[in-house]
Design a protein that fits this description.
Elements (H helix, E strand, L loop, with lengths): L1 E3 L4 H24 L22 H11 L24 H9 L1 H6 L3 H9 L13 H11 L13 H44 L2 E3 L8 H7 L1 H24 L17 H7 L4 H4 L14 H8 L18 H15 L1 E2 L4 E2 L22 H7 L4 H5 L16 H10 L8 H14 L7 H5 L2 H4 L2
Parallel strand pairs: 1-2
Antiparallel strand pairs: 3-4
Helix pairs in contact: 1-7, 2-6, 12-13
């Protein structure tokens, strides 16, 4: 009998079938790929409506003079103003805007009625507005309210289902090709063995080899080295785990009322210390009172963003619903523009929490040292959801004290002690560590 080694025909067949399957899958993928959508045709900008005023200029005047107390389609401090030009005579409106109090005192029936309907709230006089400016505002308030575009029925479903169908088709084709390859390999293997047996060919048998694990177990040196490496790596990871106990960096809880620092501190540029006013004079920065929120949100009852806005994290309806949660908490009726007296406490979730044995004073850092809030809390103006940005560990605080120069400008006390310590240490600038910022008693007492 003739002995032969492993036959190479199996490799050739496998390579040929693999190339065939790749060609089949690529051709199907090209057929299933959707054609590039043509670019949408440009739409001409709408021209301003013809009339007695310019609605574009009127919108600017409305936002500057009227938006603090009025909305177009909802009651605020004053009534809704959409279509107000159709409710009163134009000359009457001129007089009302210029000095509403004078009209009420004169006994004008329409003025007195409007005054009583709005809880006898006095409207600010605008004698500086010319009649042309009022015409522009009235033109803006006379525009028809834009209707929200309804999505085409089944459009999104059709798009998603088409993409899913094409992916499923490609996946199914690949599974089918793989199954055919497996069957072909089994059949080819049986056929080759049968041919070899009929021709008296004896296939070469693999020589028995020692198991890798048995060879490893017999080598005492490798076993010793492995045990030492395992012990060292275990100690390293155990130390790292224990050092993270109590460190809550990137802790980002969900609050009962969603508050976007990105919108307030970032896009609207509200100073951190406007809400956290106690950070200037107190040990803690404090939880802002909901009355601080109502300073603005008494008139901002819904989200002002749109599809072109930078606020893309959530929908307009989501933000408006969160503002309503604020109203429910303070007991504010936005339709009647008054407090109901029914309040609900807001259970805020604390994010930054130092151990009880650590003393930290916000006023010492904010007012005296002039440290910016972002130094410890990170770029809060970019956070949609507030989180703990820094680890707030002892090593992190000490490094800050070692690297931060003391600001002595405008402070005679620090100027005097700076000169004395600068001579002592032979440096031009002093850090907080040079002034005792690393002593244990500064933070632990």
């Amino acid at each position: 009998m003739k002995k032969v080694g492993n036959h190479t025909s199996i490799s050739r067949i496998l390579f040929f079938c693999l190339a065939l399957s790749l060609t089949f899958s690529v051709s199907h993928a090209q057929q299933a790929a959707p054609a590039a959508a043509p670019e949408a045709a440009a739409v001409d900008a709408a021209t301003p409506a013809a009339g007695a005023g310019d609605p574009v200029k009127g919108k600017e005047l409305f936002n500057t003079n009227c938006a603090a107390c009025h909305k177009l389609d909802a009651k605020s401090t004053g009534p809704a103003l959409r279509g107000v030009a159709d409710k009163h005579d134009r000359a009457w409106l001129y007089k009302w805007v210029h000095n509403s109090s004078e009209m009420i005192k004169s006994g004008d029936a329409a003025a007195v009625k409007l005054f009583k309907e709005n809880d006898q709230k006095v409207m600010t006089a605008f004698p500086q507005l010319a009649e042309a400016d009022i015409d522009n505002i009235l033109a803006y308030t006379s525009e028809v309210a834009p209707a929200a575009p309804a999505p085409a029925p089944g459009a999104a479903v059709a798009e998603g289902s088409g993409s899913g169908a094409s992916n499923n088709l490609i996946l199914g084709a690949l599974v089918l090709v793989l199954a055919v390859l497996i069957v072909m390999l089994v059949l080819v293997n049986k056929t080759l063995k049968r041919v070899a047996a009929n021709n008296g060919v004896v296939l070469a048998q693999d020589e028995p080899s020692v198991s890798v694990w048995k060879a490893y177990a017999k080598n005492s040196f490798l076993v010793l080295v492995t045990v030492i490496l395992l012990m060292l790596s275990s100690a390293y990871f155990l130390y790292g785990y224990l050092m993270q106990v109590g460190v809550d960096q990137d802790y980002q809880p969900v609050q009962p009322i969603h508050f976007s620092h990105k919108i307030h501190a970032g896009d609207n540029g509200i100073d951190c210390k406007y809400c956290h006013s106690s950070a200037r004079v107190s040990k803690t920065s404090g939880i802002p009172s909901l009355n601080v929120c109502m300073n603005c949100h008494k008139n901002i009852s819904e989200f002002a963003g749109d599809k072109d806005s930078l606020y893309v994290d959530h929908s307009k309806e989501f933000y408006t619903a969160e503002i309503q949660k604020l109203y429910d908490a303070v007991g504010w009726d936005k339709s009647a523009q008054k407090y109901t007296g029914v309040q609900k406490p807001v259970k805020w979730v604390r994010i930054h929490n130092l151990p009880d044995f650590v003393y930290f004073n916000h006023s010492q850092h904010v007012s005296v040292a002039g440290v910016e809030c972002q130094t410890c809390h990170g770029p809060v103006e970019t956070f949609e959801v507030m989180k703990q940005n820094a680890p707030l560990t002892m090593g992190w605080c000490i490094n800050c004290h070692r690297e931060t120069d003391v600001k002595v400008e405008g402070n005679d006390y620090y100027a005097k002690i700076h000169d004395e310590l600068a001579k002592k240490y032979g440096v031009q600038k002093l850090t907080a560590a040079n002034m005792g910022g690393t002593e244990c008693g500064k933070c632990h007492y």
